[in-house]
Design a protein that fits this description.
The complex is a heterodimer of chains A (about 200) and B (about 160). Chain A has about 200 residues and is α/β, with parallel strands linked by helices. Chain A contains 5 helices and 6 strands, in the order H-E-E-E-E-H-E-H-H-H-E. In chain A, strands 4-3-2-5-6 form a 5-stranded mixed beta sheet, with helices on one face. Chain A starts with 13 loop residues before the first helix and ends in a 6-residue tail after the last strand. Chain B is an alpha/beta fold and about 160 residues long. Chain B has a 6-stranded mixed beta sheet with strand order 1-7-6-3-4-5, with helices on one face. Classes of the chains: A alpha/beta (about 200), B alpha/beta (about 160).
């Protein structure tokens, strides 16, 4: 038998197959960036420092129990009302004289917070509280701060605070960063995030 | 002279596409190698909670990840169904967190250390007790910048 030369495999469709795979990988892989709520933990206190006395009216207590119920200022509350209540407390501006708050738009109730700088939100959890609930509460409280900061930023500079912050952190931003940084700081100081978290206890 | 005139009037030769597969394969391998699907193999259930007041967490090299949640189905026989911490592909105890932070810091350039953030990827169903324990350890290790990684959505879905 005469030895026949093996026919060459047609490789014309190879490119198509490879393209198909390439497109599959291009489409399916997402280079994702994580997002989340940023917080700063308090450093461990030095033993012999006496904590400053804080007036009860400047503290907004939020307690979450093991059944994920919310107790805000000794009253049961739904999660959806929390943001509004926090805004009302922070923006109260009930102080007089040196403690007065000239930019607050709240009701100036003397039995609520003096000014946003003094107002502290205290969050207490149970060890059995679900993490999801905790994040929801955190989200609402941060939302309250963001709402007030956005409002002031709009009033003073006609721009949202979140946008200012975004631009400030953007290395490609081509505006005046120094001025922007000062403004961001200013708004932050108007409504400083004072969120204290107690060690969880079994309520 | 006759040699050249012979070719005249012929059709245009087709472009040689024999190397096209090679080029495409090169691209394919590049994408296959360069894209990282996930940094750690998750051994826990990790359904993140929803939130909408979120900040972006870029600069991946400045982030340390701590996972927590119930062990996945296939590990439940061995490790039980109690929520646990996962650090770098391994289950860990609360007391390992500090050591992990120090090890991560060691691997980073010194000038970057103050910018390190700890991302907590914790399952929705986890109890706050475990999260607080982790936070307490982070305070001890002075890793104070943290980020609760969430999905974007309404909090009512939590």
């Amino acid at each position: 038998m005469a030895k026949r030369s093996a026919p060459e495999v047609n490789a014309g469709s190879m490119a198509d197959i490879a393209f198909l795979l390439l497109i599959f990988f291009l489409v399916t892989t997402t280079i994702e960036t994580d997002r989340g709520i940023s917080r700063k933990l308090p450093p461990i206190p030095v033993e012999d420092i006496v904590p400053p006395v804080i007036k009860q009216k400047n503290i907004f207590t939020v307690i979450v129990n093991r059944n994920n119920d919310l107790l805000v200022e000794d009253q049961l509350m739904d999660l959806k009302d929390l943001r509004e209540a926090a805004v009302k407390f922070l923006d109260n501006g009930g102080g007089v004289g040196e403690e007065a708050c000239d930019y607050c738009q709240g009701v100036r109730d003397p039995s609520s917070s003096d000014n946003p700088e003094k107002a502290i939100i205290s969050l207490v959890n149970d060890r059995q509280t679900k993490y999801g609930t905790y994040i929801s509460v955190q989200n609402e409280l941060v939302g309250a701060y963001n709402f007030l900061r956005n409002r002031e930023a709009q009033r003073l500079y006609g721009m949202d605070y979140s946008e200012m912050e975004k631009n400030f952190n953007d290395p490609n931003y081509n505006g005046n960063k120094e001025v922007l940084g000062k403004r961001v700081d200013e708004i932050q100081n108007m409504y400083p995030q004072k969120l204290s978290e107690a060690e969880p206890k079994s309520l | 002279m006759a040699k050249f005139t012979k070719k005249m009037g012929g059709e245009l030769p087709a472009v040689n596409t024999a190397s096209l597969p090679d080029i495409v394969f090169m691209l394919l391998f590049f994408f296959m190698v360069a894209t990282v699907m996930r940094q750690n193999t998750l051994m826990i259930q990790n359904k993140l909670p929803f939130a909408n007041q979120v900040e972006k967490l870029d600069k991946k090299d400045l982030v340390m990840y701590i996972y927590a949640g119930k062990p996945s189905q296939r590990y439940q026989q061995k490790y039980g169904s109690e929520a646990r911490i996962q650090l770098n592909d391994k289950f860990a105890e609360v007391s390992d967190v500090q050591q992990f932070i120090y090890a991560e810091r060691e691997a980073k350039r010194e000038e970057l250390i103050p910018y390190l953030t700890t991302a907590l990827k914790v399952d929705v169903e986890t109890n706050m007790g475990l999260v607080s324990d982790i936070k307490q350890e982070l305070r001890k290790a002075e890793a104070l910048k943290i980020n609760y990684t969430t999905r974007i959505g309404d909090v009512n879905k939590n």
